[in-house]
Design goal:
There is one protein chain. With 387 residues, this protein is α/β, with parallel strands linked by helices. 35% of the residues lie in helices and 18% in strands. It has two domains: 5-135 and 295-344, Rossmann fold; 149-293 and 351-376, Phosphofructokinase domain (Rossmann fold), CATH 3.40.50.460. The protein has a seven-stranded mixed sheet, with helices on both faces. A four-stranded parallel sheet has the order 7-8-6-11.
Length: 387
């Protein structure tokens, strides 16, 4: 008689608006697979797994599972635990104890690194390890984009459009909006889609892929103040100078995590002090990552698809891979899934290519707009001016 294997789901790193949609996809696919027995979740990521905080979620009612599609954050809890060699060495025994044959890790670069190391730790066992991509920052290698990004992109585009309308109606200040994304400017760049709403902004976009030049920034802003009096600037939280140093000293550092100072507040202060003009700063931060109001329907569908694909592949005997989304060529937006070796994505950061950044380094190109626009779903609703 064929023995069923149990399945465990593990979240890693910062949650997104659609990480629970991938969880939904994985759970519903696991229920369709005759080779899957019980479905477990590590409560609180790999740290929870090591502490034995493992919960059987097989019998969760379907109407509750449906709510995963509209719940941000991580419904099973996640972690940023730094794991040591001895932690990985303990995992095979934990998997054996729970009869686990399928291990699914949902996360970004750090989590894919963990995924690769768990895969190595389980060599010689009947355990299949699969990665499901997740990051609002969109900095995972190989995949065209990662679930979580498009919703964060829609949020920043819509928010910047609304602020731009506000500033246009009362043009008395420079507003600097700070976007998430430490080393990769994908979300910052997505603010350019605000123009879909028919607004004249954002005016300037500063990405972490380019060294930040204070003089050039002040020159750009001064020229705009002369023209329009109300200016909207979007900057990345991870801006660095020509020497590669953060333009605002970090508040503190813990392992891979750096808590940056407020870049938007710093730039607003520069405008006030050096140009003598009113300025204010805005920083959505976690609000932009947890917003369900602006979730991209395509992002949600693709998150579900990645969860389903990973489970099915694991059941078919695949291990040590991550599900990647590959964009099909052609006018109409279409993606296919591909299974890529997890070693290709471990701790590799994907930054904005040069073709997506304008020459002066204070905006994006049409090529970026064309790449990003299909991901956020319907174009932003048009905002009107009677001025």
């Amino acid at each position: 008689m064929h023995m069923k294997g149990n399945l465990i789901l593990i979240h890693g790193g910062g949650p997104t608006a659609v990480i629970n949609a991938s969880l939904y996809g994985a759970i519903t696919q696991a229920k369709r697979e005759s080779d899957v027995g019980r479905i477990y979740a590590a409560i609180g990521g790999t740290g929870g797994l090591l502490r034995g905080n493992v919960k059987d979620i097989t019998d969760t009612p379907q109407e509750e599972l449906e709510l995963l599609l509209t719940t941000p954050g991580s419904a099973i809890g996640t972690s940023r635990d730094a794991l040591e060699a001895e932690d990985y060495a303990r995992m095979p025994e934990i998997f054996t104890r729970y009869g686990i044959r399928y291990v699914l890790l949902n996360g970004g670069n750090g989590t894919m690194d963990t995924c690769g190391k768990i895969y190595e730790a389980c060599r010689g066992m009947d355990v299949r390890v699969m990665g499901i991509p997740k990051t609002m920052d969109n900095d995972i290698a190989v995949t065209d984009h990662a679930p979580g990004f498009a919703s964060a992109a829609r949020y920043i585009a819509q928010s910047v459009a609304e602020v731009t309308a506000d500033v246009a109606g009362l043009p008395i200040h420079v507003v600097v909006i700070e976007a998430s994304g430490r080393n990769a400017g994908w979300i910052t760049a997505a603010s350019a889609l605000a123009r879909q709403a028919g607004v004249d902004g954002p005016d300037l976009i500063y990405l972490p892929e380019r060294p930040f030049d204070e003089e050039a920034f002040l020159t750009d802003v001064k020229a705009l103040i002369g023209k329009k009096r109300g200016v909207v600037v979007v900057c990345s939280e991870g801006l660095t100078d020509a020497q590669g140093q953060p333009i605002v000293p970090p508040v503190f550092k813990v392992g891979r995590a750096t808590y940056f100072g407020d870049v938007s507040a710093h730039l607003a202060q520069l405008v006030i002090r050096k140009l003598g003009y009113k300025a204010r700063s805005e920083k959505p931060g976690l609000i932009g990552r947890a917003s369900m109001l602006h979730v991209s329907p395509i992002d949600r569908q693709e998150a579900v698809l990645c969860g389903e694909t990973a489970v099915h592949a694991a059941v078919m005997g695949v291990s040590g891979k991550m599900v990647a989304l590959m964009r099909e060529p052609g006018e109409t937006y279409r993606v296919r899934t591909e299974l890529v070796d997890v070693h290709e994505v471990m701790l590799t950061e994907k930054k904005l290519p040069d073709a997506f950044i304008n020459e002066r380094g204070n905006g994006v190109t049409q090529a970026f707009i064309d790449w990003c626009a299909p991901l956020i779903g319907e174009p932003l609703p048009r905002l009107i001016s009677l001025r």
